[in-house]
Design a protein that fits this description.
Strands 1-3-2 form a 3-stranded antiparallel sheet. The relative contact order is 0.19. It is 25% helix and 15% strand. With 67 residues, it is of the alpha+beta class. Strand 2 and strand 3 form a beta hairpin.
Length: 67
Amino acid sequence: MIDGYTTIKKIAEKWAITPRRIQILCSQGKIPGAVKFGRDWAVPIDATKPKDGRETTGVYRNWRKTF
């Protein structure tokens, strides 16, 4: 790996989330400095975990039944 960068797998273990979630965050540009090499991502070692902006309050639960 390139100096100053690490793999998605190691970052996922460090942040306690799945590697797939890291890939999604990288592709959305939410991890500054993440670079794609072919099919793999390189994430800066000192990158901070972005805030999880997904809705978790249950607002969308049973949304079909509101009509």
